[in-house]
Amino acid sequence: xYGILTLSLKVTNWCDLNCAHCCECSxxxxxxxxxxxxxxxxxxxxxxxxxxxxxxxxxxGGGESLAPYQFGNSEYIPQVLSCIYKVGGIPTIxxxxxxxxxxxxxxxxxxxxxxxxxxxxxxxxLDISVDEFHNNLDGVxxxxxxxxQSDYLLSAIRICLLGFNTPGTQKAMMALRAKLSxxxxxxxxxxxxxxxxxxxxNRGMRVIVDxxxxxxxxxxxxxxxxxxxxxxxxxxxxxxxxxxxxxLAILNYIYSEQIxxxxxxxxxxxxxxxxx
Length: 276
Ligand code: SF4
Known about the structure:
By secondary structure, this protein is of the alpha/beta class.
């Protein structure tokens, strides 16, 4: 295998949206359970032993990865982040941003995430899907506004907006930009694509800082044009080992294996033999 390997923890299949197109097999009717913290710790520990060029970038996804906050569990995500920070990892959280519609949820969640980022001494990235399928523009605009307007949040959290390469996504991005400009928050295009935005306020601060070097297409992107990001790396190919809350390991969104009590090194060997 060439390139680098990232670890993605798909912590739940529960999601407060029920998108018809969902390629994560997630939605409101899925169980509200999450990968137990002891297993998260074990996976991250075992990942360090996998004999590949490991990326320091870790992804927390779902379902709605920040759902624990909605269920009153404000410790789960900070604990996952702590496990990542302990191994020198740099976390990205994928979220639909719908929680941004509610002031109390938004305020508590952003403060909690920022606190974790300060404790880990590394920026925390929120990847938020903005496209024609998600009814989340108000939530996303609120999250971005809060982050831009708070030095405390802005120094800890950056936001990356991602979507499909479709006219519907372009329209959603334009609508979001209009909402933000009503709040005197202005956007400009990313130099490397038309789906992201830089967002600046009148103090010239950036929500998306300019060390985002590229938008990579991982395995899944080749199939359905879902994009993900990787920061600060010269690697030409980014592989993704995803682990879900049913003990399933998936390489590059294609090859899957039940972990079945094996170490991640053994599981990777097995997955790679399928890839050949
Ligand atoms: S927001 Fe994402 S994870 Fe949730 S149902 Fe929609 S596509 Fe699936």
